Amino acid sequence: MITTIIVDDERLAREGLKTLLKEFPELEIVAEATNADEALDLIDKHKPQLLFLDIQMPEKTGFDLLEEMIETPFVIFTTAYNEFAIKAFEVNALDYLLKPIQISRLREAIQRVKKQISEINESKDKHKLIDNDQVFIRDGEKCWFVKLKDVRMIESAGNYAKIFFDEHQPLIHRTLNALDERLSEQQFFRANRQQIINMSYIEKIEPFFNSGFLIYMKDGKKIEVSRRQAVKFKELMSL
């Protein structure tokens, strides 16, 4: 079952989507939310795999909700407005459905979700990678064998990930969530929604806005760590 939460401030929109989703028994709707704050609490409680998310809501938008999360479910945006499509895919949404939602488009979106979940489950079956493991990376016609200890950062680029090592920054067709499942948390840390860092390359750490951290990497990059992830980092690294 694919656990699912619907987030939409309009009751009729939620009811209409639930009616359409009856065609997909593999989806289990575990909760509904009418705003971003309510959704955040429900997501923390249920840890859903999939989020149907409206964009325009009172006080906070769907994008605001995603900015407050680190480990996000798969997201399918549902909205009456098409002008947000580019931004939606920039935040790694799997699909963007315009209201009124067409069943054919909904079917395509759910197929994408199932494919992504299958890939993550395959990754979970593999062992965690450690610093001396060597990985194969291919970007177009260029190929590398790279030891993980030489990878200083991995950065999200939509449904791709940019791998930083030496002077290279190749793109591979993997999501950041999928890669995070394979990496040892003793070496790699999910600093925010966009970046995973190799803790061996940390130069220094400073307090930052709203009880977060600002991490300075040895290559000069500055990485912002949210309050939630700062707590996790301290738990991981403290004696």
What does this structure look like?
The chain is of the alpha/beta class and 239 residues long. Helices cover 31% and strands 33% of the residues. Helix 5 runs parallel beside helix 6. The longest helix is centred in the middle third of the chain and has 22 residues, at 103-124.
Estimate percent helicity: 25-40%
**What best-fitting shape do the alpha-carbon axes yield?**
globular
Structural class category: alpha/beta
The CATH homologous superfamily name of the largest domain equals Response regulator
List the helices and strands and how they pair.
Elements: E1 2-7, H1 11-21, E2 27-33, H2 36-46, E3 50-54, H3 62-67, E4 74-79, H4 85-90, E5 95-98, H5 103-124, E6 134-139, E7 142-147, E8 151-157, E9 160-165, E10 171-172, H6 176-182, E11 188-190, E12 195-198, E13 202-208, E14 212-217, E15 222-225, H7 227-237
Parallel strand pairs: 1-2, 1-3, 3-4, 4-5
Antiparallel strand pairs: 6-7, 8-9, 8-12, 9-10, 11-12, 13-14, 14-15
Helix pairs in contact: 5-6
Give a brief outline of the structure.
With 239 residues, the chain is an alpha/beta fold. It has two domains: 2-124, Response regulator (Rossmann fold); 134-237, LytTr DNA-binding domain (OB fold (Dihydrolipoamide Acetyltransferase, E2P)), CATH 2.40.50.1020.
